[in-house]
Structures are given as C-alpha cells and as structure tokens.
Amino acid sequence: MSDQPELLFLSHRIPYPPDKGDKIRSWNILKGLAEHYRVHLGCFIDDEADLKYVDHLKGVCDSCYFARLNPLTARLRSTTALLTGDPLSLSYYRNAGLQAWVDDLIKQRTLESVFVFSGAVAQFVPASLSEKVRRIVDFVDVDSDKWRQYAENKSWPASWIYGREGRKLLEFERKISAQSDAGLFVSPAEAAFFRSLAPESRDKISHINNGVDFEFFDPELAFENPFTAAECPLVFTGAMDYWPNADAVIWFTEEVLPRLREKRNDVHFYIVGSKPGTEVKALARHDGVTVTGRVEDVRPYLAYGSAVVAPLRISRGVQNKVLEGMAMAKPVVATTQALEGIDAIAGEEVLKADDPDEFIGKILTLLDSDKDSLLGKRARSRVMRDYAWSANIDRLTAMLSGTAPGMGV
Fold first, then answer.
1. N or C, where is the chain less crowded by C-beta within 10 Å?
2. How far apart are CA 217 and CA 234, in angstroms?
3. How far is CA 209 from CA 76, 129, 230, 237, 342, in A?
C-alpha cells in the first residue's frame, strides 16, 4: 500500500454511513478511491450520532481530520457573509482547524490529487497548491440553482436571502471550476446545465453518475415486513430535514392522499427518514399517514411497499430514493423533477406524474393490476445495467490520472 499515490479527499459531511443521498455518493467514491490511493480524509461531522463511525473511516483512510460542526452555530456564523459579500455557504463551513490540517498535509506529503466533494469545501484547497497536483471538484448538482428555486418558493425576506445566495454561490462555483482540472456533476443533464452557466469552463465539465449497490438493495433478500396485512403502503424515503423532501411529502399528504384514499381507503403513506421537522411530524395527524423518523434499514419498507413515490417539486441532480426503489424492483411513481438525470423509460421502467390527478390515476392503476411486477423487474434491470459504482470509479480514476478521454461530455 505504501507505493500507492496519495490523495486528499475533502467532504462537507462525514462520508459514512451511507444513509442519505450525499453520503451514499461520497462513501462509494471514497471506498472506490481507497483501492487506488492512500487517502487523507478531511470532513465535517454535524451529527453526534456519526461520531461512532470515525474508527471505521480511520480503517479505510491513511489519515483523517474530523471537524466538528454545530449547525445552529454555523448558521449564525454564516450571516457574517452578508457583510463580506461571500456566499453564506462558505462562512457556514469555515474552520481554522481543518484549514491548518490541510496546509500541514500539503507540506508534509507528496500529493498526486485532490478530490473535493461539494463545492463549499473547495475553499480549503490553497491557491498556492502546485499545478502538478490534479484537482477535481464534485459539485454533485448545481447548488446555486437550488437556492434560486428556494427563492422562488419563499416570501420576503427569505426570498431575498436565498436569491442572493444563489447568485453569490454561482460566482464561487464558476471560480473554483475555472481553477480545477475538472468539475463533476451527477448526470449529463446537470453537467450540461452548468456548462450553460459557466461557458468559460465548459471543456472541464463532466459527470459521474450516481450508482446503486444492487447486491445490498436486492429484493430477493429476506426482510421482516414492517406493515400490517390490511395496509396498501406507499413509501417515501429521504432525509426529512432537507426542505425539498419535506415540501414533497407535505404536498402529497395534503393534495394527493385524501383523494386517493376516497378511492382506496387501505392506502397508507409512510414517510421514512431521519430528522423530520415540526411540519412533517404534524402530517401523522392525517388519516393514513405514518412518519417513522430514522430507521435502521430502509430496505424492509421498500421491499414490502406497494409502490415508492417521489413527489419532489424542487430538485437538482439525481435522486437516490428513486434508484434504490428501482433496485428493489418496486414500481416508482415520481415527478419530472425527481426523475431528472435518471435514464429510465417512463411508462415501462418508472411512472411519471406531476399533478394530483396524474399521481392518483397512476397509483390506482398500479394497485388494481399486476403491472407493478413487470415495471419493477424492468426498473431493477435498468439499475443493474447502467448504475454500477464500479464503472463510475474507473471513470473517476482515469480523470484523476489525467488519462480520461474527452472532457466536456
């Protein structure tokens, strides 16, 4: 292992356990790169529950630095950016300890590459870093546009703050993209969108698909049924402190579910995910709704659910919840936004619905026929064919070594 090249891996959140969208991607990339590099990991821990996974990552990486982050304190600190003109996101993650560790590492080690997961932590890569060190930033999605969407859906003053963040963050994204050897996104569509926003870096912009561990998400494995026999469960999975997820389940509960239950009163909506806020918890007061909070394993809910729903109205990038539902051979009913970047045939491998009538019609058709079985089988076949992590890691290591053909594709 000592003759392997060395790589600095920076992440805005500890990349383990893979229990939410960004950590699924960061963990699988880290795990894959650790087979080719001596990895030095610098990341933030924003949840006390994740402290127990520190030793696991120390066993994977050559060295680690874990910066503690208190979300409340970080939000207060981020407001200083309103005075400096910086994006709020940069002040949120500013950390002298992590910066000192990175600076010392660069002095003491001969790094071949730097991999940055999430644009906000690119601020820790010194401008003085040797040009011989290849730098790749995985933006995942166009975060600045997410803030723009937030602004459109909020009232003043939040709309002004979010709009400002979208503009300032785009300026930063363009800057670090120009300074890097490559900027990555989660899908060809997302990469193409950023090229339209940053044409000066278009030849450096590419993508690495999200993948699925389809041996882990395997419908043939045995799971204990979390539902009662009298239920027809519809399942939504995702971190519930993420506003687009919260917005999705609130909209579905209020606009779709009551009318759906008028047709089928055995339908029950399960909201499965950690850290539900007050508004999401309150949905449990509705007939036919269960808010589980964090669960140890989402697979039993997917395995025994009648269908997976992804009614996201605000979204960027690729939704792991959709890929995981497909991998479990479940029929997935999702909005156009939730299906963005996923190469699946609507009507044959997934079902697309964007308004209450479409959701109700397609869910009822599923529940009243045997179409769900064929749809689920086709969905899993698609995932196994196009979303294996191994192919993504091969593509990434070629980029890091400078041997990847044609960027900007």
1. N
2. 18
3. 34, 28, 39, 20, 9
DSSP string, 202-245: GGGEEE------TTTS-TTS-----S-TT-EEEEEES-TTSHHH
CB-based contact 277:241 (threshold 8 Å): yes
Dihedral sign of CA atoms 285, 158, 148, 83 in order: negative
Q: What is the per-residue burial (b if ≥16 Cβ within 10 Å, else e) of 89-99?
A: bbbbbbbeebb
| Collapsed DSSP state (helix, strand, coil) of residue 136 | strand
Residue with tokens 């050559």: 62
The answer to whether 301 and 336 have CB atoms below 8 angstroms apart is no
Whole-model pTM?
0.80
Answer whether 312's CB lies under 8 Å from 240's CB. no
Contact (CB, 8 A) for 297 and 222: no
Indicate the SS3 state at residue 293: strand
For residues 8 and 29, give the distance between their C-alpha atoms in angstroms, rounded to a whole number.
13
Task: Tell how strand 351-352 and strand 289-293 pair up.
Answer: unpaired
Q: How far, in Å, are 165, 218, 310, 363, 367 from residue 360 at the CA level?
A: 36, 28, 13, 5, 11
DSSP string, 317-355: S--HHHHHHHHTT--EEE-TTTTTT----BTTTBEE--S
Q: For 66-106, how does the pLDDT look when each residue is reduced to its tens digit (9 = 90+)?
A: 999 999 999 999 999 998 999 999 999 999 999 999 999 99
Dist. CA 116–CA 9, nearest whole Å:
6
